[in-house]
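Example 3.2
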Amino acid sequence: MVLVSLLVFFVMFSFLILIHEAGHFFAARWSGVKVLEFGLGFGKTLWKKRIGETDYTYNAVPFGGFVRMLGEDEASDDPRSFDRAPLWKRILITLAGIIMNFLFCVLALSALFMIGTEPLLVDTDTASITSAEARGWVTPGPALSPEYVKGLTPRITTTFNAQTAELFQTLWSVQDDPVQRAAVAEQINALHPDLTLFNDAQKQLWTTMLQVMAGDPYPELTLNTIQLPLLPALRLGASESLRLSRVIVQKAAAIPREMIRERGVPEGLAGPVGIAEMTHQITSSTRSLSEIAARILKFSALLSLSLAVMNLLPLPALDGGRFFFQLIELLTPWKVPAKWEQYAHVVGFLALMLLLVLITYNDILRLFQS
């Protein structure tokens, strides 16, 4: 089963890279820019075949790909070089890979919504639950009220309210600060002196229920199956792709802060090893083949969207970094010298490789610990 999982991961990951680089490739060909090499992977070339004026290569490190164009990294007087192309064509070539990954996500999600699938992401605040329920996406159970909690914990007679829940929510946010944590705990004890009458098990249960109440007002939530005709499915696939893109941007923006706070790779950030592990969890689940295929398609769609959004970030060595320099050229009378831009991309690439090494190390460590 492990070999099957690795094969599925390899095919899925290679396909997502292939469609991304194909976007750059076909946009360059359409724009009249000469493509010197279309490569999958990095490092030592394992296989090469020339078709027309382009070398197609497969390289030793399979995590990535590239399209090497004439005049992309060095000046060229050839009229078919990348740096001689009009700015709007260079922007199109730069963004084409991102567009391809985004379009694949839209089409994959649309297919899933036609086949029938659960909602991808439902926020648990009351407004979101109400909206999802109106659309038929979810069926909420009883709201987590004080009465509901007392029904679960009949031996606990203390009264709690919104003020107490807010204090517990504050308590989570200051867990790393012992002084503030003690101050908030003192306020809770002042409101509920009868807490001291409980044994540790009762107190822990009560505390847990308060935490759940502050973070999730509907603990018993049923996700319904969404199944739509073609056009509504396409519209929903597009709107969900945009909504999930915003979520990914928010998560990406929090990564530097989380790395500083955690002094390492934050939980939930995975590299190729982590993605392979998740693929194995999907393929080894005790489900029917059609359910596993649907879950792999959903996973591939989310990975493709993540690739699109992360590549759009204005970081050197990424498509977004190249687009940033092009925006400077578009919006100002000043063009960044090619040598400066190239230095920025080299530094950015080295930084990304270092981050990939750290993430991979963390993935392997977590794999052995589990």
